[in-house]
Specification:
The chain has 98 residues and is α+β, with helices and mostly antiparallel strands. The protein has a single domain, classed as Orthogonal Bundle (Multidrug-efflux Transporter Regulator, Chain: A, Domain 2), CATH 1.10.1660.10. 64% of the residues lie in helices and 12% in strands. It contains 4 helices and 3 strands. The N and C termini lie far apart (45 Å).
Length: 98
């Protein structure tokens, strides 16, 4: 993995002023993944938006980790259903144009 696509968890926690324990808990729930290189833990930069959303849910709305996990899974299902509807709509439009 290219190191430019990783950010140190320590740097992330300092920048966002969030406890390391919160980020570790997200990993334990399977909501985010770490990469470990040279004894250092890193986050993939493509996860930053997701982590920021989870931080807002937890700190701004006081939702516990179980709730964040449930919300995350529901949002993934909604996204999959929206993709499926979009695909079916495109197929229907293509069929109607023939």
């Amino acid at each position: 993995m290219n190191s430019t696509k990783l950010i140190s968890i320590r740097q992330f926690c300092i920048y966002y002023d969030v406890p390391l324990k919160f980020i570790t808990a997200l990993n334990e729930y399977g909501l985010i993944e770490f990469t470990i290189t040279e004894e250092e833990h890193y986050l993939h930069t493509n996860q930053l938006h997701t982590i920021e959303k989870m931080m807002r849910l937890h700190y701004d709305l006081d939702i516990n980790l179980e709730g964040i996990d449930a919300i995350h899974n529901l949002l993934k299902q909604v996204e999959q259903l929206q993709d499926e509807v979009r695909t079916l709509k495109n197929k229907l439009d293509a069929h109607q144009n023939n």
